[in-house]
Amino acid sequence: MNGEKTTKGMEMFKVKLTGHDYRYEVFQILNLFFDKSQLDFNSSDSWDIESVLDLNRNAVECNIYKDGDVFIKKQIKLHQLDKKDIKNAIKMAILNAAEEYTGKKMPWGILVGIRPTKIVHELERNNYEREEIRDYLTSNYHVSYDKALLTIEVAEREKRYLTKKENSVSLYIGIPFCPTRCVYCSFTSNPLGKNQRVVEEYLDALIREITATLDCLNEKNINVDTLYIGGGTPTSLTSEQLRRLFETLSSRLDIKGLREFTVEAGRPDSIDEEKLLAIKEAGCERISINPQTMNDETLRRIGRNHTSEDIVEKYELARMIGFKVINMDLIIGLPGEGVEEIRRTMEKLRVLSPDNVTIHTMAIKRASVLNEREYSDKSLSAERMYEIATEEVRNMGLYPYYMYRQKNMVSPLENVGYCKESTECIYNIQMIAENISIIAMGADGVSKLVFEDENRIERVANVKDVGEYIKRIDEMIENKKRAIDIISK
Ligand code: SF4
Q1: Cα of 335 from ligand 1 centre, angstroms
Q2: Which string of DSSP letters, residue by residue, matches 26-59?
Q3: Distance 185 CA to ligand 1 centre (A)
Q4: Radical SAM core domain location, by residue (predicted)?
């Protein structure tokens, strides 16, 4: 180590690549252990970490240096020389070296930027048995035994929902407004206060996009499988605005014929009886009411204008109105929360007994919010909190059915959706499995066109900014028509 520090006082590492240029892959693994600002790939005079590909010896190496001498050396023999195997071996050597250097174990090993269940489905297609899949994940990716079992369990559940009718798509509609903005928000969300007038203009534009999209799908005889209205917070709209949106949908779409229709009601401070009735009468049986935490102090700290009592009240109202499935989202690692807080949240959730619980792990820019010390303390307790939450939901009779991983989590964990028997959210599974094209409408909607035969996905994005979306709605509609044209061929 050269003793150099970042401006935040963290150790700096100069990184050298020898015999290859897989900088992104090297960065992905080092970034699990160190902040981006600690890694320098541009030094030409000296280095602390060296990743080597030596094709003469069919081997890769990762060396960590201290005072000019090799301090840690990890070597892996290459058995195959295709690109994927070489990249994985490079990642594995770095993972082994960094784990020894930091003393931290990464439960997901080198699985970064890959959807874990996709690997399971692929292995199953190649006739691997359950135990073989588990061993493949633990040895080829260094995934821990527990995470390998979790991945297999989720993959088995999601498999039931991966079948679909020929020539079908799912729809996503985005409402990018919220009562206020939460401090951790990474979505396109505009606080209502400043934007009341814009909401109406947005809805006009959105209705134009929905109308054109549904007309185009009907013209081409494309079936709609599932419909998801998300955000932001869709219930930021008034009940009249919601009814207008649903009328547009039902004028061109057989809502009763959908396999699933979900509305993310989201924050309790946006929900009232009129809005819930509008949603129910539109034929939707599945909503989310997302507490994130049941601790009032945390709710205040994260910028929410409601209490845990409001969450209970709106949940009971939704039950009384008769929604069949209610999901609740939780976040592990919210500012100021520890083991005590998550226990309290889970106790309150147990009483409510929601049908789905989605457990997210907070994702933050590590260096900008917390210093290194705070981060490592935080990640330890995040792991414990995560264990408590998952144990509790399993005790509530829920099982995991979909899962994804994100960058910059406070701990190297995962986001998992749990559900009671047969209440899986099919749209969530489809989003992760990428087995069906999703046509997304609204600002920041990203349509994903799936070409299964070619193992390829094409993305068609609407603009993010609400003002731009309204201004450029004709262009958005044209792009959408072109996208539908491509998948109908
Ligand atoms: S409710 Fe969700 S989308 Fe809205 S501000 Fe909070 S985190 Fe962002």
Answers
A1: 15
A2: HHHHHHHHS-GGGEES--SS--SEEEEEETTTTE
A3: 5
A4: 163-399
